[in-house]
Amino acid sequence: MAFEKELQVAQLAVARASILTKAVFAEKAKGTISKEDKSPVTIGDYGAQALIISAIKHNFPQDEVVGEEEASSLREQKDLSSKIWNLVKDTKLSDSDSDAILGGPIRSEDEMLQAIDAGNSAGGSKGRIWALDPIDGTKGFLRGGQYAVCLALMVDGDVKVGVLGCPNLPVKDSEPLKEDMGIAATDAEGYGVLFSAVQGEGARSQPLTKGSVSQGHSISVSKVTDVTQAVMCESVEAGHSSKGDNAAIAEKLGVTGRPVQMDSQAKYGSVARGAGDIYLRLPVRKDYVEKIWDHAAGDLIVREAGGQVTDIHGQRLNFSLGRTLTENKGVVATPADIHAQVLAAVSEVLSAK
Ligand SMILES: Nc1ncnc2c1ncn2[C@@H]1O[C@H](COP(=O)(O)O)[C@@H](OP(=O)(O)O)[C@H]1O
Ligand SMILES: [Mg+2]
Ligand SMILES: [Mg+2]
Ligand SMILES: [Mg+2]
C-alpha cells in the first residue's frame, strides 16, 4: 500500500488531537479569541495544531505544513499560552506504542509554540506539504455542533492522503443525518468517526478511539439516482455559504427534503459514506477565497468514495497554488452519477442572479 506510514501517522495524530479538543469542549473554558479576520480561535485549535505538527515533524522532518493557526498572538498572551501548554503536555494516546509513533509528548511550552508556527508553509506545487485544519468548524465546536480535525498530505500539489476526525458524528455510516447530532455526542457511545483515504486506494471509516487505529472498512457515496430524494448538506453559518442559492437549486432539482445544516468537513465525510448526498458551498461574497485546509482531506475522501468534487464552474479544486484555492469558487460535492445534473442546476441558478 502506498503512503502507509503517512496514513498511520496522520490517523494517530488526528486521534490524539481529538482527545485534546474533546477535553477543551468538556471544560467549557475554551479561551476564545478573535483573529484579524474576526473568526474565533480557541485553545483547542492551537493545542491540536501543536500536537499534529509535532507528530509530522517527528516522522517526516523535511515535510512542510500549511496550518491554519500561528502562535504570534500567543507569545503576547502568556496566560493563554500556559493554559494551552497545560492541556498539550498531558494529551497522549492510551496505547503507548501508538503514542511513541507520534514521538511522545512535546517537551516544553516553547517547543509547542514552535510547532504551531511550523504551520507557516506557503504551500504550492512542489514537494511534500501537509494541509492542516486543527479544528474545522470552530463555530460549531463552540456551539456544541459538528467539527472536524482535518489533515491531508499533498505531493507536488496533488492530495495523496486525507484524514478527518469527526468526534461528534455517529460511528454508523448509515445513520440518518440530524442537525442536533453534535450536542450530546462528545464521548457518547456510538459517536466519533475517523475517515481516511489514500489516492487510488479508496476511502475508509473507523471509530475514532483514544488508543490506536485499525484498517477500518471501506465506504462509498450513496447510490441515489433520483435527485428529488437527495439529502443536501450545507453550512450552519449563513456567512460561509449562500443558503438562498442552495434553496433555489434544491427547488430546481425538485429535492423534497430540507437541507441538513452542519459545520465543518463533517459534510464531506457524510457525503463520502452516503449518509448525505449533496454538499453545496456557494459563495456569499465575491472576494472570499477558500483555504486549502478547509477542503484538502474532504475532497480526496469524497472522490475516493466514488464522488465528484468541483467548484461551481465544474473545475476540480486546485490545491497547488498556495494556501488558498485561488482559482476556485465554491464547492459542489456529490456522487459522480448525479454531479452533472447538480452542477447544471447550480449554473442556472447562479447565472440568473
Ligand atoms: N465568507 C466565508 N465563506 C466561506 N467560508 C468561510 C468564510 N469565512 C470563513 N470561512 C471558513 O469556513 C470554515 C467553516 O466552514 P463550515 O461553515 O463548513 O463549518 C471556517 O473554518 P474554521 O472553522 O476552521 O475557521 C473558515 O475557514
Ligand atoms: Mg478558523
Ligand atoms: Mg476550517
Ligand atoms: Mg480551523
UniProtKB/TrEMBL annotation:
Mg(2+) binds at residues 68, 133, 135-136, 294. Keywords: Hydrolase, Magnesium, Metal-binding. Its cofactor is Mg(2+). GO terms for biological process: inositol phosphate metabolic process; phosphatidylinositol phosphate biosynthetic process; sulfate assimilation; tRNA decay. Pfam families: Inositol_P. Gene3D superfamilies: 3.40.190.80, Fructose-1,6-Bisphosphatase, subunit A, domain 1. Its EC number is 3.1.3.7. NCBIfam families: bisphos_HAL2. Converts adenosine 3'-phosphate 5'-phosphosulfate (PAPS) to adenosine 5'-phosphosulfate (APS) and 3'(2')-phosphoadenosine 5'-phosphate (PAP) to AMP. Belongs to the inositol monophosphatase superfamily. This is 3'(2'),5'-bisphosphate nucleotidase.
